[in-house]
């Protein structure tokens, strides 16, 4: 499972770089300022949570028995899909109803950080 999360983090990070470059170069002239801001927010959270996923994978490599770490990893992945994914599609398509999906991804991110925090207490104790 650790290898899966580390590989997923690496792929996610590479995608975040690609999407960031795409937004900065190809979309700057095509999107209005609101849509460009939404896209940049998606990229920003995509980067942060790719690093969080990497941390989960590294910690799991040393503590494979901690189910809280696995749960955190899955929650970060769900958050990436729901939060960043919905914002990417919203900014490119203009479908404003997709904005209602982003908070679900945000909740997944918060729960993932909670799992990581709880796992840290188990590691320390």
Can you tell me about this structure?
The structure is a single chain. The chain has 125 residues and is an all-alpha fold. The protein has one domain. Helices cover 83% and strands 0% of the residues. The protein starts with a helix and ends with a helix. The model has no long low-confidence stretch (mean pLDDT 96).
Question: Overall 3D geometry?
Answer: elongated
**Helix fraction bin:** over 70%
* Uncertain residue segments: none
Distance between the termini: 23 Å
In terms of DSSP E residues, the strand content is under 5%
| Alpha carbon gyration radius | 16 Å
* Biggest sheet details: none
**Number of helical stretches of at least 4 residues:** 4
Mean of pLDDT:
96
Per DSSP E runs of 2 or more residues, the count of β-strands stands at 0
Integer tally of domains? 1
- Helices and strands, in order, run as HHHH
What is the SS-derived class?
Answer: mainly alpha
Task: Reconstruct the topology from this structure.
Elements (H helix, E strand, L loop, with lengths): L1 H24 L7 H30 L4 H27 L8 H23 L1
Helix pairs in contact: 1-2, 2-3, 3-4
Can you summarize this structure?
The chain has one domain. Helices cover 83% and strands 0% of the residues. The protein is built from four helices and no strands.
Keywords:
single chain, 125 residues, mainly alpha, 4 helices, 0% strand
